[in-house]
Design a protein that fits this description.
By secondary structure, the protein is an alpha+beta fold. The strands form 7 sheets. It has a 7-stranded mixed sheet with strand order 3-5-1-12-9-10-11, with helices on both faces. Strands 7-15-14-13-8 form a 5-stranded mixed sheet, sandwiched between helices. The C terminus is likely disordered.
Length: 784
């Protein structure tokens, strides 16, 4: 079926933040720290306050006096030794010192955005520079006194002694040091806020956010010290999220507080460079990993340490990357013993937070790079080494050495399907053909399993209202920001109740109207929100049977429901759901002590465990040895996402996720000046987002093992691409470069980085596996 929301969104009828125009709105611009680390002196706003059109300039002292609290971390953890996480306060507008370039220190509010920006430039901020810490390695000056060595926390999983014993008896050891670059989520819609005071001490805040109810609670009770009943958060259409629209950040708080203080609407919308500088960043991990194998190529143990950049502060969900890394490192293999460690590290950079596939993408990348290196070390086929060590089909839940419990999955089937569909038998011919055109061809594999949909305690709610005139409205606590939820959830209701999906209106994103929910992240919406919707529909049917029994003068037990019609069993007496809905709202002859008016039901669902989608992706690339340019030429994604409710939506999620993974593998990196902390990749001219010619038509296929942890049998699908694709692509490039003896490259594999590796390999001819097979063609450079 056609996606229901596309007609509106593709014809410019969406309602995004920038589309909202409110008369009398003031505009905000922020004064930001020019250095990565410094002690704040005076903030002289005298000249700015006197400029035409300026209404106010607020600093951290103003907000503190006004009762504004610090930005919270909502994922409190303790280190493996029981010590508390180092949690330096993160002020909305700091007064004492700044800790990264772009940190806001003051906000200017004016009658126009031009006046606000001009005045912001006139604010004079005195800063005494302090030593800048940029690296993830131990050592250097401490940023915060409560974090010696700049360590925020340290977590451990597995069986360290068992792993050590396994390494001692191993026939082969393979070790890698890997660097995963910092990414910027970059949704199409930049961050912003429009705060509308109601004149009675309350506020309606429009903000592109993935979890309006959670943001409302954090803003009201933790930061603004406002009763939650005095605040509504509205997020209608949101132009992309990817995790980067979950956190409560300084600008939204300052705009909301300024509107309350001034009694007028205040709006701020970031430009692209401002958003890239100050949004939550992601990834940024330095990892080491070792694999122990016996003489038959069986895995004995895995050992890994990941140093994970938290940035200057532990953000709202900053520790999640480490937590998910640990629970995902066991992957699809029987490793025997695992010793895994994750260390959160402070640096003078923008804080990091969750991003599509957080922690899982890092863990799968580490494991799959390691497995590929082991296959090359042992001269074993890359599919065969995986096959020998994959977990068997899961008929009963299996718990691995890091505590992840897989409820379902057939990892062998996914890898076997990927091997067959990737046409491995034809690969030699394709490689020879590429070589004839002056290109090196490589094939890379990435098998994965990862947790989605949260886990114990994840709750979602839905409310379904049938209207007397026909149709229904579904009110949700989840949120949509491009995934196609309106289509999927309308179809779920329609399937349950027996009418057209177009007759269902899906409403979400308004805390003043919609039921409480945790929003959308971690591929949770259908796995947790779906059962809530199904239960609400079932409650509609159950009440409808009672009304139908009254209308048909039959007992409830004799009334059945199918395809939108209630029927008295064994007879031709029927009544439609529409007629029942009308009767529900016009109950002139109801037994009111038994039936309340209306057909409006709410339901919830609480998850007791995560879902575990899995699969195997295969990439093929061509490398131009004269320029270092990498071209993706084939890509196959075989995924098990449980029961597939809408294949086109699943394929869309896989396609989009793979593109993000390819971007990480080949293009994207938030590069900073190592000595000053200045962001050097602060626009789309120098932060290389994937473009149309960077990707190809993808081949998708599915295996299917229904999930046992929710009644719909679905598993999360949205993060498979960014979890699996980086390792598949990087492994393919290294496979292409193997004849030159190139065994290690870190993402992103830009043409320059690949070209330098090729140049260094040619300068050391003893590393070449087969010099006569290496193309050196000027034509190759011209063809690039």
């Amino acid at each position: 079926m056609t996606r229901l929301e596309d007609g509106r969104l593709l014809t410019g009828k969406g309602r995004f933040l920038a589309d909202l125009a409110v008369p009398g709105t003031l505009h905000a611009a922020f004064v930001r720290a020019p250095v990565a680390h410094g002690r704040l002196g005076s903030i002289d706003a005298g000249a700015a306050r006197g400029m035409a059109g300026v209404t106010a300039v607020f600093t951290g002292a103003d907000l503190r006096t006004g009762g504004v609290g610090a930005l919270p971390c909502n994922v409190p953890i303790t280190s493996h030794d029981g010590s508390a996480m180092a949690l330096p306060p993160r002020p909305v507008l700091p007064e004492a010192r700044v800790a990264y370039v772009g940190e806001p220190v003051a906000v200017v509010v004016a009658e126009s955005i031009e006046a606000a920006r001009d005045a912001a430039e006139a604010v004079d901020v005195a800063v005494e520079a302090l030593p800048v810490v940029m690296g993830l390695e131990a050592g250097g000056a401490d940023i915060w006194p409560e974090a010696p060595g700049n360590v925020a926390f340290e977590l451990r999983w597995g069986s360290a002694q068992a792993a050590e014993d396994a390494f001692r008896r191993a026939a082969t050891r393979v070790a890698l040091a890997l660097r995963i670059p910092r990414l910027i989520p970059n949704p199409l819609e930049t961050r912003g806020a429009l705060a509308l005071p109601d004149g009675l001490g309350g506020l309606r805040l429009h903000v592109p956010n993935q979890s309006p109810h959670r943001l409302r609670r954090t803003l009201a009770e933790t930061v603004l010290n406002l009763p939650e009943t005095k605040l509504d958060v509205v997020a209608t259409d949101v132009g992309g999220g990817f995790g980067g629209r979950l956190a409560c950040l300084a600008e939204e708080v300052a705009v909301a507080w300024a509107a309350l203080r001034l009694g007028r609407p205040v709006r701020w919308i970031a430009d692209r460079s401002e958003s890239m500088l100050t949004d939550s960043h992601a990834r940024d991990v330095a990892a080491t990993a070792e694999l122990a194998l016996d003489a038959a190529g069986r895995f004995l143990a895995l050992r890994t340490t990941a140093r994970i950049n938290q940035g200057a502060y532990v953000s709202q969900a900053g520790p999640v990357c480490a937590l998910e890394y640990g629970v995902s490192i066991g992957s699809v293999y029987d490793f025997g013993a695992i010793d895994a460690r994750a260390i959160g590290v402070f640096t003078n950079t923008a804080p990091t937070d969750v991003y599509r596939g957080v922690g899982r993408a890092e863990a799968v990348y580490v494991v799959e790079r390691l497995v590929e290196a082991a296959a090359r070390t042992l001269a074993l086929d890359k599919f065969e080494l995986r096959r020998r060590n994959l977990l068997q089909s899961i008929d009963v839940p299996v718990t691995n050495d890091v505590g992840a419990t897989y409820d379902s999955g057939d990892f062998q089937a996914s890898v076997a399907a990927a091997r067959e569909r990737a046409d491995g038998s034809g690969y030699a011919g394709r490689r020879a053909e590429s070589l004839g055109r002056g290109r090196l061809r490589g094939l890379g594999v990435s098998a994965y399993v990862h947790p989605t949909a949260g886990g114990p305690g994840e709750v979602e709610t839905a409310r379904l209202r049938l209207h007397p005139s026909g149709g229904a409205t579904l009110f949700l606590g989840t949120h949509s920001h491009g995934q196609g939820h309106e289509t999927v959830f309308a179809r779920l209701v329609a399937t349950r109740l027996g009418f057209a999906p177009e007759a269902v209106t899906v409403a979400f994103g308004d805390t003043g109207r919609d039921p409480w929910g945790r929003g959308t992240y971690g591929s949770r919406s259908l796995a947790i929100g779906g059962p809530a919707i199904a239960r609400a529909a079932d409650k509609i049917v159950a009440k409808g049977r009672r009304i139908a029994a009254h209308l048909l003068e039959a007992s409830v037990e004799d009334v059945t429901f199918e395809a939108g019609t209630f029927r008295v069993g064994g007879t031709d007496r029927t009544v439609s759901l529409g007629a029942v809905a009308l009767a529900a709202y016009v109950p002139h002859n109801f037994p009111h002590d038994e039936l309340e008016p209306g057909l409006d039901e709410a339901a919830g669902f609480e998850s007791l465990a995560a879902t575990y989608p899995s699969g195997c992706h295969v990439a093929e690339v061509e490398v131009d040895t004269e320029t270092g340019a990498v071209r993706l030429v084939r890509y196959l994604a075989v995924d098990d996402v449980g029961v597939v409710f809408d294949g086109s939506i699943v394929d869309g999620q896989i396609h989009g996720g793979v593109v993000q993974g390819v971007g990480q593998a080949l293009l994207e990196a938030a590069v900073h000046d190592p000595s000053t902390g200045q962001l050097l990749a602060g626009s789309w001219l120098d932060y290389a987002m994937p473009r149309a010619d960077d990707v190809i038509a993808l081949q998708t296929a599915r295996t299917q093992t229904p999930c046992r942890t929710n009644p719909l049998g679905v598993k999360g699908a949205g993060e498979a691409g960014p979890v699996a694709a980086p390792a598949a692509v990087v492994n393919a490039v290294l496979d292409a470069l193997a004849p030159l003896g190139v065994t290690a490259l870190d993402m992103p594999l830009t043409p320059e980085r690949v070209w330098r590796a090729i140049r260094e390999a040619r300068a050391a001819p003893d590393r070449l596996e087969s010099p006569q097979a290496i193309p050196r063609s000027g034509k190759a450079a011209l063809d690039c």
